[in-house]
Amino acid sequence: MITSPAPLSPPKPAQRAGTEARPDLATRPFKSGFIAIAGQPNTGKSTFLNTVLGRKVAIVTPKAQTTRTRILGVCHRPDSQLIFLDTPGIHRPGSSLFNQAMVRTAYDACQDVNAILYFMDAGRGVQEADRDILARLPQERAALFLVMNKVDRIEDPKLYAHLQALSDLPCTAVVPLSALTGYNVDHLLTLLTTQLPEGPRYFPDDQWTDQPEEFFAAEVIREKLFLNLQKELPYSLAVKLNTFQTRLPLTDKEIWDVEATILVERESQKGIVIGQKGSMLKQVGSMARMELERIFGVKIFLKLWVKVRKDWGEDVGILRALGYPAPEERQDDTAEDDALFR
């Protein structure tokens, strides 16, 4: 079923999710459940999550594979609580342990959920890779929604053709939307709620994610690196927080000390990240500091270092220390810990 509450163009501005008037709420049972967000890289999954929550819980860049692990986001609505699991883009991982772990994380997140949102880019339409991925999803246990995202970027005739190409795929509904503008987002949330069981509030109303502040701080730094560095370098770096604490003694104005290590794989990459006379590192640090101050509402004193760690993405100990998914079986007994990053 292709479902849309309004003509596909022009896209309408987003309303805040769940704010529409519902006079019959008192008679409705409360619903809650878990929803996986899956799809190929760069299909707008994290943008969708941030739009739904009305705040940033997942970093977003134009580069594919920005999301590296499972990100939980909680959408609080008057009659329901929707718990989203944003996942890394599913791709061909090759021999890379890190890429294999990211893909496994995405598939694992789709197990034991009430619904799966499978995202596709409206500019490309459904691809053979999408069909291969969909065949591996547990559709018999979860409601499957095919989401054609980025409809604000293409003309209606092309969009309709892409939607018709989905007609042979079994699913609960096909929903065209724009995560960027908010078009059809609230409609999708309403459809999702119909698929959820009656249940409790798993999270209090003031909690939006299960990620600690330290994880998000490291992600913001990595986002600024992705936005400022070109070509393939962003995929060869990671960020590990060394220090995240309130400065003592306390003063009238609270200050947090944040120190982080940027890992790269080669000495030449270290020079690029630092930049001429430290210019790139200074720019990244300034952008990250300003956003962290806006998010946390305190003064941030940020220090960044760059360290070369050859093939860090193949080292199980480092992956685990970074908080990234890693192979379940260790390939050696050499445990890596935070000392690696100092």
In short:
By secondary structure, the chain is of the alpha/beta class.
Q: What would the keywords be for this entry?
A:
alpha/beta; 6-stranded mixed beta sheet; Rossmann fold; 342 residues; GMP Synthetase, Chain A, domain 3; disordered C terminus; 2 domains
Would you kindly provide a written description of the structure presented here, covering whatever features stand out?
By secondary structure, the protein is an alpha/beta fold. The protein folds into two domains: 25-194, P-loop containing nucleotide triphosphate hydrolases (Rossmann fold), CATH 3.40.50; 213-341, K homology (KH) domain (GMP Synthetase, Chain A, domain 3, 2-Layer Sandwich), CATH 3.30.300.20. It is 29% helix and 20% strand. The chain contains nine helices and nine strands. The protein has helices at 45-53, 97-109, 128-136, 156-164, 185-194, 213-228, 267-274, 279-296, 316-321, and strands at residues 31-39, 71-77, 80-86, 115-121, 143-149, 173-176, 238-246, 255-264, 299-308. The strands form two sheets. A six-stranded mixed beta sheet has the order 2-3-1-4-5-6, with helices on both faces. Strands 7-8-9 form a three-stranded mixed beta sheet. A hairpin with a 2-residue loop joins strand 2 and strand 3. The model is unreliable at 4-21 and 329-342 (pLDDT under 50).
